[in-house]
Design a protein that fits this description.
Helices cover 21% and strands 25% of the residues. The strands form seven sheets. Strands 14, 15, 16, 17, 18, 25 and 26 form a seven-stranded mixed beta sheet that branches. It has a six-stranded parallel beta sheet with strand order 21-20-19-22-23-24, sandwiched between helices. The chain has a four-stranded antiparallel beta sheet with strand order 3-8-9-10, with no helix packed on it. The radius of gyration is 26 Å and the shape is globular. The chain starts with a helix and ends with a strand. About 27% of the residues have low confidence. The protein folds into three domains: 130 residues, no CATH class; 189 residues, Quinone Oxidoreductase, Chain A, domain 1 (Alpha-Beta Complex); 137 residues, Rossmann fold. By secondary structure, the chain is α+β, with helices and mostly antiparallel strands. Helix 8 links the parallel strand 20 and strand 21. The structure holds nicotinamide-adenine-dinucleotide and zinc ion (2 copies). Keywords: Metal-binding, Oxidoreductase, Zinc.
């Protein structure tokens, strides 16, 4: 945002100024022939009532300006009822279709299509940059409540503008159920600096579609959907290979598929805008509750893909999972799909290892025991486990995995690490150890959904507490004190 403002200031100094003392309208700063000659990711401009005024296209050229004027009273058609009285707005899209975003607030304001004059004919876009000094007859935008990140250690359940469609492939979803992830706690600690103050948190949930973009045909208003924590455009090189976690589309940041509650507003809110809806949402089938569906947004795919699949778990294997929070438990719950002979749950928390039995753990070890490692080895043929899965995200637990894996075995790291770990290659190379890691793709969400629907995976087992959406701060409090409260997934129902 700051760089945008700098850019705008820079542009202004290069432009001719044209002042208009129109009682109704605007002060325009423009140059019909301005060519910035550089790339910009956001499109800038200003909107007067019913008017799209400016856009900077990705090419760097300034395009598509329609100057509002009393003399030529042909307002460009745009749903403007939600515009604030004075604002500078960012545009995105194309000359045929622009969307508008307030820079002083977050959340999109409106979407427009090719401007149309009153007589119905298309109005050609022109170049320029305009700023509104006064606008009349505007109405308030609709307001919703959401959990907003306010900087490290700070969060607020507050009123914010409701999201609106920005891109034709978007839908708006009214949240029915959401939850809190360990990653949200990382964000609140300030461990994820990409998250800006003002961001609505949350990347999991189930909701009901209330609005669809013009390019969405396979989803409709009223559909109940599971929101994947990773968004997929469906077209880029990575999406074509199922590596949605690195989707190259231009939402949030190209190359990062986890955008909800990170780079765009998330699901801990009454409504959320879902980009690339057709390739990122899954219809909730009959027989699967929204609460069960919420477990499929993130933790079940993470445990399955990054723990079990990357760890190459196969029939007869001895699998150890170090750290049995919700993500470790998801690995345990999906390990059973591949027929391991033993699944060993390892955690400092005696209560958590006991809970792990419900998910399919055959053995439990409390890792504060001095002989924890010997206990693990004793459960194997003496050579170590075939697959050691890390589900905490600290150097110590990664080392624990290296300590218990057998030669030619696999270490699958799922934890989000904040600092570097020890990797004693001088010892490991000769043991033919395979190490894997990754951000979940949710490319197996559809498969896991079928297994949840058939009760082959019991999603309810992950749910420890239930709250109402307006009590989300209480839900955070319980989730943050998991060791004390025995919380696993806290379900938050709207
Ligand atoms: N790779 C991905 O795509 C992805 C997706 C979601 C979450 N994650 C990450 O997975 C990790 C686990 O998530 P979670 O929600 O289950 O977290 P959590 O905090 O609920 O669970 C962590 C568990 O580890 C245990 N633990 C802590 N220190 C330990 C130690 N020294 N020895 C043994 N056990 C220890 C805790 O008692 C707890 O039960 C986090 O780092 C999270 O950020 C990764
Ligand atoms: Zn998560
Ligand atoms: Zn993509």
């Amino acid at each position: 945002m700051r760089s945008f403002k700098r850019e705008l200031a820079r542009i202004r100094t290069r432009t001719r100024t044209e002042l208009c003392d129109d009682r109704n309208a605007y002060r325009a700063v423009s140059d019909e022939h301005l060519d910035l000659g550089r790339r910009m990711r956001i499109y800038c401009g200003v909107v007067a009532r019913n008017m799209v005024i400016a856009e900077i296209l990705l090419t760097g050229k300034v395009h598509l300006v329609r100057k509002p004027s009393r003399e030529r009273s042909h307002p460009i058609v745009m749903p403007s009822e939600h515009l604030p009285p004075r604002d500078i707005l960012a545009f995105s899209g194309s000359p045929q279709r622009a969307s508008v975003k307030s820079l002083s607030d977050h959340g999109p304001l409106a979407t427009t299509t090719q401007p149309v004059a009153k007589n119905g004919s298309a109005v050609p876009w022109k170049k320029g940059i305009f700023e509104i000094s006064r606008m009349r007859h505007t109405q308030e935008r609709k307001i919703m409540k959401a959990l907003v990140y306010q900087g490290p250690g700070l969060k607020e359940w507050k009123e914010v503008p409701e999201p609106t469609i920005i891109t034709a492939t978007d839908v708006i979803v009214k949240i029915d159920t959401t939850t809190i992830c360990g990653t949200d706690l990382h964000i609140l600690k300030g461990d994820v600096p990409a998250v800006e103050v003002g961001r609505i948190l949350g990347h999991e949930g189930v909701g009901t579609i209330t609005e669809v973009g013009s390019a969405v045909s396979s989803l409709k208003v009223g559909d109940q959907v599971i929101i994947s924590c990773v968004s997929a455009c469906g077209h880029c090189d990575f999406c074509k290979k199922g590596v949605y976690s690195h989707c190259l589309a231009d939402e949030g940041a190209s190359g990062i598929g986890w955008i909800f509650g990170h780079l765009i507003d998330g699901t801990q809110a009454e409504f959320v805008r879902v980009p690339f809806a057709e390739t990122s949402l899954y219809l909730l089938p009959p027989g699967v509750t929204p609460q069960q569906g919420t477990v499929l947004s993130d933790i079940l795919p993470t445990g399955h893909e990054i723990g079990i699949q990357y760890g190459h778990v196969k029939a007869g294997d001895v699998v150890a999972v170090v750290g049995v929070g919700p993500v470790g438990l998801a690995a345990i719950a999906t390990a059973g799909l591949y027929g391991p002979s033993r699944v060993i749950a390892i955690d400092l928390d005696a209560n958590r290892v006991e809970q792990a039995r419900k998910f399919g753990a055959t053995d439990t070890i409390v890792s504060s025991d001095a002989d924890w490692k010997e206990q693990v080895i004793a459960l194997t043929d003496g050579l170590g486990v075939d697959v050691a899965i890390e589900a905490v995200g600290i150097p110590q637990t990664f080392t624990m995995c290296l300590d218990i894996v057998r030669p030619a075995g696999h270490v699958a790291n799922m934890g989000v690490h904040g600092k570097s770990v020890d990797l004693p290659l001088q010892d490991l190379w000769i043991s033919n150890i395979n190490i894997s890691m990754g951000l979940v793709n949710t490319n197996t969400l559809g498969i896991l959904l079928k297994l949840v629907a058939q009760k082959k995976i019991v999603a309810e087992n992950f749910i420890s507490h239930t709250f109402a959406l307006e009590d989300i701060l209480e839900a955070y409090d319980v989730f943050e004190r998991a060791a004390e409260t025995k919380a696993l997934k806290v379900i938050i129902n709207a």
